[in-house]
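Render this sequence as a predicted structure.
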Amino acid sequence: MNPDQDAPAKERPPLSLTTKLLYGLGAAANTIKQRGISTFLLLFYNQVVGLPPAMVSGAIAIALIFDAFVDPMVGQVSDNFKSKWGRRHPFMYTAALPVAVGFFLIWNPPMGWEKEALFIYMLVCLLVIRLFDTFFELPSSALLAELTEKYDERTSLIAIRQLCGVIGGLIMTLLVYEVFLKERPDGSGGITQREGWFEYSIVAAITIFTIILISSRGTHHQIPYLRQPPSRKITFAGMAKEVAHTLNNRSFVVLTVSGMFMSISLGLKGALELYFSLYFWGLTQSQLSALTIAGMIASVSGVSLASFVSKRMGKRNGAITMFAGAVVALVLPILLRLMGLMPPNGSTALFVILFIDVIANGAMAIMTGVMLASMIADVVEDSEVKTGRRSEGLLMSADNLFKKVVSGFGVFVSGLVLTFAQFPQGAKRGEVAPEILHNMALVYLPTLVTFYAIAIGCLFLFRIDKDAHEQNLATLRARASTTTEVAE
């Protein structure tokens, strides 16, 4: 047998619905963590703790860049790791406790510290969270290409994973607005006050810990059917050469470049989303809760339609179409407000428009994410045909590397946008000067649209359709058959 080829797994029985659901459940841990950091962390440390926005966004950007360079190392190691629990599961189990503890600590900074000390505290917590979250999320994502090789089943499995992730994140967000940091009728409380963040942090941390263990255990019985790495010795230079060879795949490069520009915009959007909701649109926390429910409706709709759109249009064309629609839905309300064509803040008409818009944007964004993730999985066999190696972890981690590096830039830009607009600290809803909000939107919109447009344009160069994927599988089966005959 070729020493560079992974040892084939046993023939796997069909995946049960329970296995699919437990595998998909794992995404909820990552989404709860990610939504907490991307949605609330800038607001928390800026408006509640009192750090300047550029300092907060700078720490987030540093942690993202650190995480990005850790990812490929974890991916390559997990691709070649040998144990009785396979390549992926030891890392997944290890992640549970450190991620949960780090997430709890970041929302409970010491009182009375200087800004510089708080910056270092936040950064260390972020680095711990990012490092050990990679230990779970990356191997778990890499399992996808091993659990099924079927072109359409991959899309449905990713759809389940996306649904679990989005619903988990949205439920925790809803609990923030309506339970842990509920705004009282007299205007006290709410997400800009310190009380309630302790309860949120401990519930979220326990939830993340539990989900990681349950999901890891839920796929544990699949270990005998997963591929085992070959027994071989390889130098660091040899490993670097393999990495370069694996990543030199046109379709992978196209998806990576597209993902980079998309991640810049997502970093910018995620960091400023609450600022637009609270101050630009003047929404109450009850209305934010309702929009969270709209997000759940969007998630169910998107997941339900993703497989249909993928089969009808193909993954690439479906992703391009849904991506473009999601961007239009995202920017249109802000553009119309700048043109003076939206109802005034506080009106029922405005909220109804935003509610419908969240559903439209969210559904198309979910469909886009499902198809893009499935396209990345299809690169695994295309790469194996060209290199002779299975490199799920490396491909997933490299894709994450470039996305995280540039998304850190997007988060950093969000701090600059707030600084440029001279956004006040301790701001109250309805009391921020209109020119500040106007300037914030004028910088935000063209930046967002430019990067999203480039991301969509890159997808036209992706070349792996269903026929190409089936041909890759046929080539690998023929190669495996020939190798077996030679060995005998």
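Summary. The radius of gyration is 23 Å. The CA atoms of residues 96 and 252 lie 30 Å apart.
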